[in-house]
Amino acid sequence: MPAPMLEILPDKPALVERGLTLVVETIRSTVANQGYCTLALAGGSTPKPLYSGLAKQDLPWEKIYVFWGDERYVPVNHPDSNAGMAKAAWLDRVPIPLDHILITPTLEGDPSASASQYETMVRAIFGRLQGISPDEVPEFDLILLGMGDDGHTASLFPHTEALTVSDRLVTVGNKGSDPRITFTVPLINRSRRVIFLVAGADKQTALAQVFAAEADDLAFPSRLVRPHGALKWLLDQSAVGDLNLPQPLSQPEETI
Ligand code: 6PG
User: Residue 165 domain-assigned?
Assistant: First the structure.
């Protein structure tokens, strides 16, 4: 497991621009190398301008498969839907085949059933692309993540059952009483690349704990993200403040 690479950008627009560059580079190189690219999106607000930027790119859309690392338990047309946000900003504006856009099921009225259904959908695509067996954990080419001001990521919230689920790819997360559908830690950590996008002074306290030598992983779940592949944190200066972050800082010209 390689050490995380950190890049500190002056502000959120610069972070988004850097994230866009890395995502485009990853898609292009991965499609060139293996003929397709599997990508899981972050929700929340930070990635929205990055998705808008992707809508303006010339990419091999028919070779890209898009999933969501987590989803609120609402219909796609609900204002809180992560899929709804990404569709409006990006996916409805480019010719990705509809069956390559794996929207999290959220209409079953039973979050556990929806989580199992999404796991089946993920396995079906990776079974076709990689011939994985039913007991294998699929390897995404890139997973985008955000981090909440409490240190959660995806819908892996502090001190919730979802944090310790190890026998599934997808499970039910809980933000208080709100159910969410989320990738599990093993699925995230199987990824070839993970990029965190973290901006804003409200993230400083959690960031200090996530990068602390000693802290409770269950209290700050982003600490659980230790992918076997590459991990890059894109941080804006306001999120970092005067934190003394681990080195090395990766150089702007580096890809992930
Ligand atoms: C969600 C997310 C969540 C998000 C963080 C950061 O569904 O909300 O996936 O993990 O990435 O809460 O959100 P912001 O980017 O809005 O700060």
Answer: yes
Three-state SS at 204: helix
In a domain, 64, yes or no: yes
Residue 7 lies in a domain: no
Nearest CA to ligand 1 atom 7: 43
d(CA 158, CA 221): 6
Q: What is the domain-level CATH number for residue 100?
A: 3.40.50.1360
pLDDT in tens, 189-245: 999 999 999 999 999 999 999 999 999 999 999 999 999 999 999 999 999 999 988
Find out whether the beta carbon of 43 lies less than 6 Å from any atom of ligand 1. yes
Nearest partner of 4 among 224, 179, 232, 244, judged by Cα: 232
Give residue 235's identity as a one-letter amino acid code: L
> Domain residues for 104?
26-192+202-226
Q: Is the Cα dihedral 238, 86, 226, 141 positive or negative?
A: negative
In a domain, 237, yes or no: no
Task: Tell me the best of 16, 41, 46, 235 to mutate to test the pocket of ligand 1, counting ligand atoms within 8 Å of each CB and taking the most.
Answer: 46
Asked if residue 104 has its Cβ within 6 Å of ligand 1, the reply is: no
Question: What is the number of domains present in the chain?
Answer: 1
pLDDT digits (tens, 9 = 90+) for 15-30: 999 999 999 999 999 9
Amino acid in the structure at residue 48? K
Residues with pLDDT less than 50, the chain: none
pTM given for the model = 0.97
Q: Is 186 in the pocket of ligand 1 (CB under 6 A)?
A: no
